[in-house]
Amino acid sequence: MKADLIFINGEVITVDDQNRIVDCVAIKANQIIATGSYNDIEHTITQDTKVFDLEGKSLLPGFIDAHAHFTIYGTNSLGVDCTSSGIQSIQDLLEAIQKKCMETPKGQWVRATGFNEHTIAEKRYPTREELDSISKDHPIILIRKCNHFSFVNSKGLEVANIDSTTKDPNGGIFERLADGRLTGKLIENAHMQMLEYANFTKEELRKGLKLASKEFIKAGITSVHDAGAYGDGADTFRIMQEAVNAKEIDVRIYAFVCSLTNSHLFVSKMSESGAITGLGNERFRIGPAKLFTDGASVGPTIATRETYSHDQNNFGLLYYSQEELNEILGNAHAKGFQVTAHAQGDRAIEMLLDCIEKALENQPRENHRHRIEHAGIASPDLQRRMKELGVVPIPNPAFIYVNGDKYSEYYGDRVNVMYPCWDYIEQDIIAAYGSDAPVITLNPLLGIHAAVNRQAWNGQPIGNRQKVSVLDAIRGYTINGAYASFEENIKGSIEIGKLADFVVLSESILDCDLNKIKDLQVVLTVVDGEILYDPNSQRETVESAV
């Protein structure tokens, strides 16, 4: 078989069973047809073959982000971006939102996303009154970086029919003053339900998906496990498939059956529809049925077995009781779904493991690969149960870099078993890494960096025991992600017969300073044998072989 494209003279990290490092790889159409030395692939070269000289750079399997909110990442780009360098204070924020109001017809939602009170000069949230001062004609919603809290003005509360007499939803809080008046801050499920009213149109969703695809490809992410969006899950599911069919999305999608708003309703609907995990094709495939069990690690609102280190009265929040969890996910399991849930705290993880154990007792099933999204505080007893039950945890190593200093404050010594990548390797538990973008950056290289170094952004060590090797961290972002979606036979490593999904880095990831992994750049992304991202499209190193 003759190659259309070959890469030579590189550090080709195959991520196969032996972690082989080779020099070259050859592609025909959308598949890998040869790997090894130049002598091993030379027979595939013709006059029409394009030869890419890697000049010693690393070539890896395309990154697989095992947990990101693909749709939300895209739609966030349509509003005010609070992570912009121009927003350093509450006043900067208000001015940016006011400018957006001036561009938006009265009565339509104005949205701002990515707010982090820790990076604002005043170190506080905006008040309802401050948001009201911008506009009383536009409903305004400001979403915190973690996507578990939001802040709305009076018009936003009015549109959602929320007032001082409205009861808190299960797993959520409408924050109130001592006299009962609403502050406009919505916590957990109160925030999630608000997005039923502040949701996006079909046209906005399609536009956001296109923008997200471009950014994921630029980051070297060729596959994403989409962990759910706001609003009606069925609508988002359909629109995403339409965009895939229209070839507006280049990233391969493993789509969770999940809505951030009333996720149990979408799960129940899909469980009865006849669809199951795995249905689809290489571009779009139905993933696991997912619920939320607890909150955000930096809220902090995760459900813990012991109180928070900084607040002796706080055990976090739960969305569902054990009985509700067992019924909803147990039924999805019985119908043939892979099941999972957002479970950050050790109490939430324990509840999910109890649910999975009961589901398997009632309906035994081999190779189910049920998952735990995040699995934040994963103590040794919980790890043992994951191993016994065959559960796949989905940690977020980059959280350690971004939030590690806060984790030490909130959870004390429990940071030693937060996102415990080394423990998973030691116990032979397959763990697939995710970014949780847009909660933090989607950059897989930051996740690899954090897994290898286990330091917060300020250099503070966070659970040094959980450091892993560079090759192990790469596996977490490639072949393990493929395993978590039952696709390890077609992608996740550079082996003959697999899909030609690659990423090329700016230099060798195995030889670079470990503290500089996060600074590496993606210089080429290939999906299905097609170069989709190349910042230097006219590079001279691509030439016809003679």
Describe it for me?
- The chain folds into 3 domains: 5-62 and 497-544, Urease, subunit C, domain 1, CATH 2.30.40.10; 79-194, Diaminopimelate Epimerase, Chain A, domain 1, CATH 3.10.310.70; 200-484, TIM Barrel (Alpha-Beta Barrel).
- Strands 8-15-16-17-18-19-20 form a 7-stranded parallel beta sheet.
- 30% of the residues lie in helices and 21% in strands.
- The chain is an alpha/beta fold.
- It is built from 17 helices and 24 strands.
Sequence stretches where pLDDT stays below 50 over 5 or more residues: 538-546
- Order of strands, main sheet, comes to 8-15-16-17-18-19-20
CATH class of the largest domain: Alpha Beta
Query: What is the CATH homology-level superfamily of the largest domain?
Result: Metal-dependent hydrolases
- Mean pLDDT, nearest integer? 93
Described by strand count, sense and barrel closure, the largest sheet is: 7 strands, parallel
Beta percentage is 15-25%
List the helices and strands and how they pair.
Layout: E1 5-8, E2 11-13, E3 21-22, E4 24-28, E5 31-36, H1 38-41, E6 50-53, E7 58-61, E8 63-68, H2 70-76, E9 80-81, H3 90-103, E10 110-115, H4 128-134, E11 140-144, E12 149-152, H5 154-159, E13 172-176, E14 182-188, H6 189-194, H7 202-218, E15 221-226, H8 233-245, E16 252-257, H9 263-271, E17 284-292, H10 322-334, E18 339-343, H11 346-362, E19 371-374, H12 380-389, E20 392-394, H13 398-411, H14 421-426, H15 444-453, H16 470-476, H17 479-484, E21 502-505, E22 522-527, E23 530-533, E24 542-544
Parallel strand pairs: 1-6, 2-7, 8-15, 9-10, 10-11, 15-16, 16-17, 17-18, 18-19, 19-20
Antiparallel strand pairs: 1-4, 2-3, 4-5, 6-24, 7-21, 11-12, 12-14, 13-14, 21-22, 22-23
Helix pairs in contact: 2-7, 7-8, 9-10, 10-11, 11-12, 13-15, 15-16
